[in-house]
Structures are given as structure tokens and as C-alpha cells.
Amino acid sequence: MDAKQLKSTSKFLSLVLRHQPDKIGVELDEQGWIDVETLLAAINRSGKRVTREQLNEVVETNDKRRFQFSGDGAQIRATQGHSVEVDLGYQPATPPEFLLHGTPERSVAIILETGLKKMARHHVHLHHDQATASAVGQRRGKPILLQIAAGRMHADGYLFYVTPNEVWLTDEVPPQYLSLLEVASG
Hints:
This protein is an alpha+beta fold and 186 residues long. It folds into 2 domains: 3-78, Arc Repressor Mutant, subunit A; 99-183, ADP-ribosylation fold, CATH 3.20.170.30. The protein has helices at residues 3-19, 36-45, 52-61, 108-114, 130-137, 150-155, and strands at 34-35, 67-69, 75-78, 99-104, 116-117, 124-126, 143-148, 161-162, 168-170, 172-173, 178-183. A 3-stranded antiparallel beta sheet has the order 1-3-2. The chain has a 3-stranded antiparallel beta sheet with strand order 4-7-11. One of its GO terms (molecular function) is tRNA 2'-phosphotransferase activity. Keywords: NAD, Transferase. It holds the Pfam family PTS_2-RNA.
């Protein structure tokens, strides 16, 4: 697949595996898994054409590693970012002292006042590296990086989880744990 096809297929998989499995008439199990053959058949019935080889390519080359196959390769799921109810089974983990969150400049004032909230997703997404946090923040405008005192939050009893693609998850980040890091360059 060329880069455009890869991106389009990845976005479609994100839609189906994170938000709207019913769009193609499938259901995810409680942990967000679906049988690969069931998924491919439903995608192809919906009018899109995706082969197992193309699906493998999307999973293997996705820069954010949004998807994972089960150990035997028979099932697939998104690794985080769901708006549909799933239990990904991640265990609490000890975060690094600081984590980052990229956000559009227009959102900074309200976030610093009220904190980070999960909104329609299951968790707030945090990152350990500036490049990833900045890339996330620039999706909707000029990115600003917020630093989260994750170590202090954890010591104060907040739970953190880490996904296979190294996205840190938590339920919320109250404003007292946030600080403005820098304006990220795009």
C-alpha cells in the first residue's frame, strides 16, 4: 500500500476498533478484541477492500502502534483511545516523574484552570517524549506541551497504566499537577 492508503486504512480501523464497530456491523469483546477474519469480512462487505496482508502492514507500520494482534494472530484490537466500553486489562504501573500532554494552544487556559479530563475517552493520554506529545497537540492547531507531575500524582494515590505502545493513561490530571512546559515547534 502507498502512504495514502496506509493512512486511510489506519483511520478506518481506528474508527471501527475504537469508536464505531457497529459502522460495519461487528461487535468487540469485553477487552476490545475481534477475530481478524470476522473484521476483514465485515470491512469488505462495507465496500472497503482490505486483505490480511494489508492489515498486517497497517499494524506493523503504524507510527503510533495503535493496534495489536493477539499472541496467535487470530484477533486484533486497538491499544487505547476507545470511546466504546472496553476493559483493556492494563495493570497499574509506576509512571516516570514527569509525563507530557500536547494540546492545541487554544485549550491551554481552560486546562490549566480545570485540569485534564478524559472527555469521551476512557482515559487521559500522556507521553514520555516531547516529539509524540507535540505531534498529538498539533493535530488541532498550534501545539503547547504541558508537563504533568506524574510521580507526585502517583504518590498521592492516582493510578496510571501504560499501553504496549507506551502511552500512559490516567483518569484525570487535576490542575495542581500541571505546568506549562514550552511552546512546541511544528
